[in-house]
Amino acid sequence: MKGQSRKKRRAKHHKPQRIEESLQPKHSIKHKKKTHQHQNHVNHSSASSNPPKSSSSSSSSSCSFIDKARARLAGGHFRMINEKLYTCTGKEALDYFKEDPELFSMYHTGYQEQMSHWPEQPVNMITKWLKGRSSSLIVADFGCGDARLAKNVKNKVFSFDLVSNDPLVVACDMSNVPLDSSSVDVSVFCLSLMGTNYANYLQEAYRVLKPSGWLLIAEVKSRFDPNNGGADPNLFTRAVCEMGFTSELKDFSNKMFGLLYFKKKEKKNSEGREIEWPELKPCMYKRR
Ligand code: SAH
Known about the structure:
Elements: H1 26-34, H2 36-42, H3 58-86, H4 90-99, H5 102-115, H6 122-131, E1 139-142, H7 148-152, E2 157-161, E3 169-171, E4 184-190, H8 198-208, E5 209-220, H9 233-244, E6 245-251, E7 257-264
Parallel strand pairs: 1-2, 1-4, 2-3, 4-5
Antiparallel strand pairs: 5-7, 6-7
Helix pairs in contact: 1-2, 3-5
The chain binds S-adenosyl-L-homocysteine (SAH).
């Protein structure tokens, strides 16, 4: 599979699209528009409309003003890096962070801030799934972030991301991970199908999975909402199955993310047909 030509992998490049969804629950977005107070609580970039009130302690009010300004700046940086990651290839993303690894920490501070507003985090769903199975299953976590999965299960987890700030994480572009073919039982992509060449990541996951191994994908729901410019989940599922998987679960019941679970077939699909990968639109954050 690894030798399959890049020509066959047809995840199209696309323009960034600003979508009306942030990575925060919709109900909190509505509230944000109504009250400045709440806006500041959930949104980095909203402090401009809410200057510090005079108070008995001017130092504490200037402190909170500085904090807000910092948070606004951090929110802006986060959105910029996020947009970059969704609109470039994995190789370009690797080079981007190599030039300035600080950007990776900035990204993850913003990411964790956003995630703290989600009612349920997809990484916890995947953790639960793994805990319900044998801890002898070997896992590859593609785009692991802070390696939360590896830290929360007993399984052997190989954790990959573009930058390593933790001894558990191997820094690499996940289209080329340092694992033998057919060596893991579970490949995980938790909100990490970011690059324009995402099909390469899935090909790599296929390569390292043992026959009957699991491919677990959690993705932002809007990316699979055809009514809002997202991909048709059926077309995505079909493309993954054409690679040599069977679809085992499609769960879009969560408000924020969808879960798509697959199993690698015992036998390889006969090669030849070019796989039509649907475009997965970037998940952008509104500037507020
Ligand atoms: N899976 C983690 C982190 C999700 S954020 C969690 O659920 O908490 C998405 C992560 O994917 C980021 O850390 C980003 O750096 C990583 N990523 C994106 N493209 C990548 C690539 N080509 N190779 C390795 N990691 C990548």
